[in-house]
């Protein structure tokens, strides 16, 4: 598919991580390769594009530098991104295209936009093209997604409770950082000059657990080999989407005893519900050593719907995760049993598929203590026999999904959903 079409590299990374520096470096090192670049900036003036133009011989006059200003290519400028990439491809003068995203962009929707032209059956490209009136891309393909991580700011960003504004959408700093790490082919650990070896090794170990598939390269001032991020043929949508460490851990759980720099993971499973107030309290002060937690849970009193938990650094969000199959009408249950052959094995006579599966990834986690902590939030035998609706419940109420929308929390990466903060008031 890819040989005759132009390869596209997408650079993501937090504000100030070193995307523009990396871009300038590869432009200077591109040799005989003709590169076109597309720079996205949130402001009306594209500062990054000016920086690229200043420090390279690339220019917007010759149309090898395209600026997309005043919006984000992972949201409202998705159509403009496609059109710009299409224009550059049509010009036929370039060997590769490099896209620099804004610091608040999520890589998944950007990749989704760029791959819509290919056969992604579950993404329903037809609907997308009908809705937007945009023609599918044919002359180029997404080749490599790169995330630039600032080694110097990594821990601070993970622990920060800063909330960024992406054109009206609030994004938690730690959440965004984790999402950028979880969806990429190559991770550039930049600003290595500002961090000591032990810290670098620890960050690398964390990145490896969060994103086992990506190649991790250390860089200083974005000095990376062009061949490591351009025309690598590393990108594969389905692989990228299923490659996050938490997802792999949920699919093939194992207690990671062999810890590197104290980074471990484990899956917590329970077949009785959480007490809404005790679990909310636990989430209010979730242990700092947990870097990432994801999965679905059963909350007492919410017997129709599963709830998804997303923890990334200091950000804790919950979102609807679909109906429990046990809450569906009999004929829809039958359809679910046929679609998911493993479901029957896990079925409980009384509670059906209701239950909790959460993966926890962190540094220096005391697994035993965390399990006890989580178990303490489950209903006791006495509470199991009580009226669950009488428990205080400050979790958000989600609109009931259509029947038939059963939970598939283990397989779906809801990276683009908003979710709701759980720092709810008493
Ligand atoms: N010490 C050090 N500074 C670096 C390194 N890489 C980039 N910088 C500096 O960090 C600052 C931000 O770098 P940029 O390349 O503009 O970062 P960016 O990701 O494009 O930032 P935004 O466009 O704001 O999202 C600049 O002052 C760079 O000179 C590095 O490896 N080491």
Automatic annotation (TrEMBL):
GO terms for molecular function: hydrolase activity; nucleotide binding. CDD domains: CobW-like (cd03112). Residues 396-426 are annotated as: Disordered. It catalyses: GTP + H2O = GDP + phosphate + H(+). InterPro entries: CobW-likC_sf, CobW-like_C, CobW/HypB/UreG_nucleotide-bd, P-loop_NTPase, Zn_Chap_cDPG_Synth. Signal peptide: none annotated. Coiled coil: none annotated. SUPFAM superfamilies: P-loop containing nucleoside triphosphate hydrolases. Residues 405-420 have a biased composition (Acidic residues). Residues 263-378 form the CobW C-terminal domain. Pfam families: cobW, CobW_C. Transmembrane segments: none annotated. Keywords: Chaperone, Hydrolase, Nucleotide-binding. Belongs to the SIMIBI class G3E GTPase family. ZNG1 subfamily. This is GTPase, G3E family. The lineage of its organism: Archaea, Methanobacteriati, Methanobacteriota, Stenosarchaea group, Halobacteria.
